[in-house]
Amino acid sequence: MTADLAGDLQTRIAFDNSYSRLPEAFFEPTAPTPVRQPRLLAFNEKLARELGLPDLGEDEKATFFSGNALPAGSQPLAMAYSGHQFGHFSPQLGDGRAILLGEVIDQSGKRRDVQLKGSGPTPFSRRGDGRAALGPVMREYLVSEAFHALGIPATRALAAVTTGEKVLREVALPGGVLTRVASSHIRVGTFQYFAARRDLESLMRLVDYVIDRHYPQARQAERPAQALFESVIARQAQLIASWMHVGFIHGVMNTDNMSISGETIDFGPCAFMDHYDPGMVFSSIDTGGRYAYSNQPVLAQWNLARLAETLLRLIDPDEDRSLELAKASLGTFMPAFQSAWLDGMRRKLGLFTSEDDDAALIQSFLDAMQGAKADFTIAFRTLADVLENAPAGLHENEVPVRAPAFSTWVARWKSRLSRQPQTNDEVARLMRSVNPAFIPRNHRIEQAIEAAVDRDDFTRFHELRTVLENPYADQPQFEIYARPPLQEERVLQTFCGT
Ligand code: AMP
Ligand code: MG
Fold first, then answer.
1. How far apart are CA 309 and CA 319, in angstroms?
2. Contact 272, 437 (CB under 8 A)
3. Which residue minimizes the CA distance to atom 12 of ligand 1?
4. Contacts (Cβ under 8 Å, ≥6 apart) of 358
């Protein structure tokens, strides 16, 4: 049966596994460990078509995306990487619970990794069991797909299965496997892996590979390694700004969780904040608040400095010169971030033009939100209604932007709007296209996980999947998913998948 399935797929999935053609030092060939009873929980048909996958039956999907059989052409492997975790360097991390099945060239000609997460131990697992609990699998599915719908670069979720096995965390939990699709799974930590081993040859090979795969224009530069570094900086500046625009807190921005391609990766203890608080932290392991909401740009820059260190010997033959150049490049991060942040914030306020005072206007809105403990998402979303003098909508009680505390600010904002040529209609349309009505709210994710784990009830999970596909549409039938949590529903801490 297994062999048949594999044979059947061979003619239809065109894997082209460039990573497995890299030298041995880059990975460990590792096959997934089969699970007892794979059951398909979710499958992303649209993404499957984008990847050019064939039509698969339910059983085939459950079989392949649990790792119970390998599609022909797959060369499964676990990738090697290191990482600074909360500031401390671990020279050897690697895929401890993930296995790359292979790469496909998608319909637009882009190379994409297809990876199982939770598919059993690998040589990099060390203490862990290589498995994932169902909860984190559901969370990653929902949040990564929500990112895609929001228009923010992120890894994608192709499939989720339950395994029919328990994984032991603090308690025994149902297990799951997620199939993750990424532009690649190369991280800052991949560079650190070879740098830590003083393996210059592999490092050069990695730089070459990354330039070919992600930043081909860097090849033409006078110093390709520096050009590569600057490209990564530019993507990360844009990415972190996008997170800030939607109130996202990654929670575990270690260098092994920073993708070289500029996609959001690793949805462990991440969360979107409800009420605005720049110091917000959710992750149970982030006790020092290192990765708090407002620290994210600074910490991204810190990670990029670690990347720079790995490239010093490759930027210029003269080491002092190299350091100087790397520093200059790193110096472009903050201005790039600030400019991306300001651009996006202008759009959130419906501003088409630029004025010197815009940053102050934005800051005073944020300050007012913080003072009023306003829900970040709803406050921005409601501004378009305020502009149109629409009757107070669904969230009257939670929306302080109509409250007196905001009236001075609203007047200032309206006078700013009057100095640009766009009509209120155009302004409102812009605002509704960038201020989501729906984000994957923590309490809703937790409720969906609880229903699944306790009662095998996936209704909420599928409802969330549906509503998060159109985050910028009003969808009144799903109004409950737009609401902030009630006091008793609030989730104050999130936990890693481990
Ligand atoms: P993360 O916190 O998800 O970024 O993972 C950090 C490191 O721990 C990575 O090298 C993972 O592969 C490894 N890891 C996390 N969970 C497990 C697990 N259940 N079994 C083995 N390794 C794991
Ligand atoms: Mg990770």
1. 11
2. no
3. 96
4. 342, 345, 346, 351, 416
User: What is the pLDDT, as a whole number, of residue 6?
Assistant: 54
The three-class DSSP label of residue 337 is helix
What does pTM read for this prediction? 0.96
- Contact in structure between 494 and 270 (CB atoms under 8 Å): yes
Distance CA(212)–CA(204), nearest Å, equals: 12
State the virtual CA torsion across 99, 102, 106, 111 in degrees, nearest 10: 90
DSSP letter, residue 287: T
Read off the pLDDT of residues 45-54 as tens digits, 9 standing for 90 and up: 999 999 999 8
Verify whether residue 256 is a known catalytic residue.
yes
Rg (CA), the chain: 23
Query: What confidence category does residue 367 fall into, taking pLDDT thresholds of 50, 70 and 90?
Result: very high
Count CA atoms closer than 13 A to 31's CA, side-chain side.
Answer: 10
- Closest C-alpha to 116, from 82, 159, 73, 155: 159
Residue 4: other Cβ atoms inside 10 A? 9
Give, for ligand 1, the residue of 143, 165, 495, 498 to mutate: max count of ligand atoms closer than 8 Å to Cβ. Answer: 498
* Cβ burial, residue 279 (10 Å; 0-12/13-18/19+): exposed
